[in-house]
Each structure stands twice: as C-alpha cells, then as structure tokens.
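Page header: ASSEMBLY MODEL / two components / 560 residues total.
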Amino acid sequence: MSTLPPRPLAAPHRAAPASGGAAPADAGWLGGLRRGAAQAAPPAALLAALVLLWEWGVRALDVPFYILPAPSRIAGLLVSDQATLLAQAAVTLEEVLLGFAIAFVVGIVLALLIFSSRTVERAIYPLVIASQTIPVFAIAPLLVVWFGYGLLSKIAMAALIVFFPIVVNTVDGLRAADPDAVNLLRILGATPLQILLKIRVPAALPFVFSGTRIAVATSVIGAVIGEWVGATRGLGFLMIHANAQLHIDLVFAAIVYLSAMALVLFGAVSAIEWLALPWRRAGDR
Amino acid sequence: MRAPPRFRGRRFLLRGALPMAAVLEIRGLVKRFRRDGGWLDVLEDVSLTVGRREFVALLGPSGCGKSTLCNIVAGLIPADAGALRLEGTPIDTVARGRVAYMQQKDLLLPWRTVIDNAILGMEIQGVARAPARARAREMLRRFGLEGFERAYPALLSGGMRQRVALVRTLLCDRHLLVLDEPFGALDAMTRRAMQGYLLRLREEFGRTVLFVTHDVEEAVLLADRIYVLSARPGRVRAEVAIDLPRPRQPTGDAVVSTKARLLDVLEAELAEARA
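Prediction written out in full:
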C-alpha cells in the first residue's frame, strides 16, 4: 500500500492532454472541414478514375449511346437539359421531403409509444418489423390505386420506406440509456418526464440521427418507385419516359440528379447532427 | 494518539458515545431476491444508525449486499421487512429524492458539460439554472476543476470525472450522502487524492455520510464508525468506533493495528462462510 501522507488538497489529478487532446488547429468547424476534405479525397479520386475508364471504354469499344452513353455525353445533357431536369427534380424533392417529414413525426411518436408501453410494444412492434418483409414494389401499384397519380401516392411510398429505420433506431436509442444513470435520476427524485427528457431522449439522439441518415437517402428511392409505377411528373417519370424512347443518356442524367439529391440530404442530416451533438465530437479526437 | 479500540472474538459490539440525533436509522432490515425459483437471502436482520454529521463506513466482503442496502436506503427498491427511517420519516420507494447517491461508476451524462453535470441534482429539485451554475462553479473550483466547467466528460481523466460526480452529489443538498464504493475503480494514487477531497468535504461541509467499501484501510482512514457486514446473507458482525484524530496516516500505529483487527474479523467471517 502507498505510504504517502494524506495530503488531501495536494496535486489533484490532471487531465492528460497527451491521451485525449487535439491540436488547437484541428478544433472547430474549419478543422472539421479539413478532416472532411481529407476523408473525401480517396473516394473522389477512385470515382474520377472509374469515370475516365468508362469514358475510355465507351469510345474504344464504340458502344452506341442508347446502350451506354459516355460520361461526357451525360455531362453535356446535364447542362443542355438543365431546366427540365431541375423542374422534375423539384417535384421529386417535394415528395421526398413531405414523405420523410410525415414518416419522421409518426415514427418518433410510435417509437415513444412502443418504448413507454409494454402492451403497445407487444402488439405493434412485431407488426412493424414484419411489415418490412412486404416488398415495397408490390404495394406501389396499390398506393397509386388508392392515392391516385398525383403527389399523394409518392409521399406515401417515400414515407413507408423511411418509417422503419426511424422507428427501430429510435426505439433502440430510447432503450440505450445507462440503467444506472436512470436509477441515479430516480434516486434524486426525478419524475418520469424528467427522466425521459434528461436521459432517455439525449441518449437516443445519436440513434435517431443514424436512422434519419439512412432514411433520407432511401426516401429518394421510395419517391422514384412511386413515380415509376404511375406519375405524370418527377425524375422517376422522366426516367421511365426516356427509357421507353431509348433516351438512355437522359436516364443517366436523372440518376445523377437522384444521387446528388440523396447525397445532399444525407450531408444535411450529418451537418445537423454535427451541430446538435457537440458532445459526440469531444471524445473522438 | 489514543489507543486503538479493543475488541476480540467474532461477535462483539463496541458502542462509542451514544450516536447524535440519528439521520438514518435501520432496524431489522431483511431483503431477499428471487433466484432460480428459490429465494436468495441478501440482507438478514441488519440494524444500524448514522448520526448527524457522522461518517459511517459499511465494510464487508463483495457480494454481502452492501449495494442492495444502499439501493434500499436510496428508496430505489423496497425492503422485505424492517424499519428504515431517514430524519425520522420512513423511507419508501415513492417519495424518493431524500438522499444524494454516488457509486463506482461516475454516471456523468456525456452530453452535458462538467458544470451541467454538476447541477443535475439541483435541476431536478427545481433550482433555476443560473444560481445552480454559480454554486457549481464555486464548488468545482474548490475541487480543482476550474477551467474544465465547459468540457465534456469524455475529455476528463477518471479521477476528474469522479470528482465531478462528487461535486454533483454534494450539490444535491440532501440529508444523507450515500457513497457506494465511490473510488473502487480508481488507481491507488487518485484514490488517495479522492479520499482527501472527501475528508475535506466532511470537515468543511459537515455532511452526514454512509460510505460503503470493501477496503479496510479506506474505512479506517475515513470513518467515525465502521459496521462490518458478514458474507451473504449480510448481517452486522461488528460495530467499531474509530476514535482516532485526523488526519490519519495509513502507516500510523493505531491505524495499522485497527486495520489488523478488522482484517481478523473479516477473515474469520470469510472462513466461517466457507465452512
């Protein structure tokens, strides 16, 4: 055993900057941006290489544009048909955002119900999970029958796809709080509402965000499927229409827009998460 | 230095001066849990008192039900039998919030800064944020955490985190501090420093403390009185008043001999439990 005299006030343990500290230049959003750029460089380089290979392959093998258009031709179309593409993208984006918003609100409320009531959990949760075995494509035509060719059937489609990751991740998140920390609050006399707001919800947020990131990206898929099955507007409609006319370069241009849309939505959620959960950045430097 | 307390045999009872007005009074506490279809007796007829401004240690081998006792005192789980009174009022699981509680895990909330973790107890009591923070700032300074108020717990060392937990516990303003092996996970050096902080807390703030430990030395260095619990089912095997002046040195004669005697009791207890 230590023979140190009891010197209570002497030399309190100091934080070791060597283990957890970061160079000041790396802190803040500028540093985050720099690290982000460093992370983005390798996949960007690989993507550029693949595009070049594609361009070279199409030219060398003389592939006709209605089979596989060269990237340069798609790029040209992105410029020349910008107005059409943007107008259709706006339609799809509206479906995506509305579908996502509805599924998000309903999903969070349902997750709270599942979490707070054993009865609701037993009755609903298995059905929510089982519902995922139904192929989305199979119900897409039904949704058109029920909700028509307009906006509504696409919103429903996007919402259906988004719903599941939101509910499941939120339920997991609400259960993730350290039970000892919950007990500590109970001992301190916290009400159930205080426990929910001070522990359960903050502990659930990282889960909600990862569910949301997946959800926004896949909600684009939902809207497009909805448009394929029956629509008069939107990027999905544009693709079906162009495909029928062997206008394959336009199909690719629409795909570029859809990917960009999903990427931007994904990035937006990540940015909100970065701003909303500063404590998540504290440990991982 | 006064002579260490004398006691011999496995069962003995050494009463110090009559305890001051009891803050915590436990009589005939029984707790058992369902286990594999049968019953597991965890606490059997435990009686103890903690007087005002008294520092009482609960010493016992691991698995003797010390933490269960803490949970019952904290109102987290009900007792199966026995009377528990805190400031004269029975403890039950409905009206919680009467004790401040700290355990081996610091239980700091990772999304709260140091200062906001420190004010958690006050916040639950309904103290407004600004005055709560002002009080916490002062207390953090006293515990050597100045400049870390806005840091997140992930950046702190184990000792610092445990000090924040101690500040949070202290700021709760409850009648009784229940500390369940609070320094169990710390290295020896940090642990010594934390014990120093705790002693200071006792001297400066005159708080009533129920301190659970399985470390004999820790108990002898800190406590006014020690209850030795038996191996499961937990029973009070001995009550020892440690009437030594502070600060106590781990190598002081009286501390060493008291430690030796307590170890004898514990070993006899463990031998009996094995037999």
